Amino acid sequence: MMNLIQKFLSKDRTNKSQLRKNFSVFFYSLPEHQWILESSNKAHFDKLFSHLPSGVLEAMMTKYPVIFVPSQELKKNGPGRVLNNTIVVFPEFQKLLQSEKKSAVAYLAHEVAFVLYELEGMKEDPLMAEVSADKFVCDLGLTFELEELLLMLDETIEKRLRLTYLTINHFKDF
User: Fold this and answer.
1) What is the DSSP string of the chain?
2) Which of 23, 94, 153, 173 is the most exposed place for a label (fewest CB within 10 A)?
């Protein structure tokens, strides 16, 4: 399992706050993200950006521009528009993003990690890719938020496996 945090950890300590500001301006200026400003809780995205290592932000601004698209937009414009760097936000997660729940940030972080793993060419079993993305979320310090998110999901074997991994690896000292 590749550690995404270490891959994008920047040793350069110069002006990370400016990079965060530049990324935020870049992200919200994309036409695909206007829905976030209009109908979502922008604070969840801002919190995500504050947790992401500057190397990840830089990669998302240059090498892998990640796009969040509501599923209704895909229906309107047709599925031919989905790219590897596109995160499709389904209605149940749009509701989560409109709420005040802290698990919304874990959702965003998980989706970003999942896409970055794919774009980096990591070919894992789909379930292990989910677990790797969960590890990334925990490495960001969002373990409890991830647990809240997983507990909200429908009961599946995948959910149980992800919760088991989370419990064994991140809650063992509690």
Assistant:
1) ---HHHHH-----TTHHHHHHHHHHHHHHSGGGHHHHHHS-HHHHHHHHHHS-HHHHHHHHTT---EEEEHHHHHHH-GGG--TTEEEE-HHHHHHHHS--THHHHHHHHHHHHHHHHHTT----HHHHHHHHHHHHHHTT-HHHHHHHHHHSPP-HHHHHHHHHHHHHHSTT-
2) 173
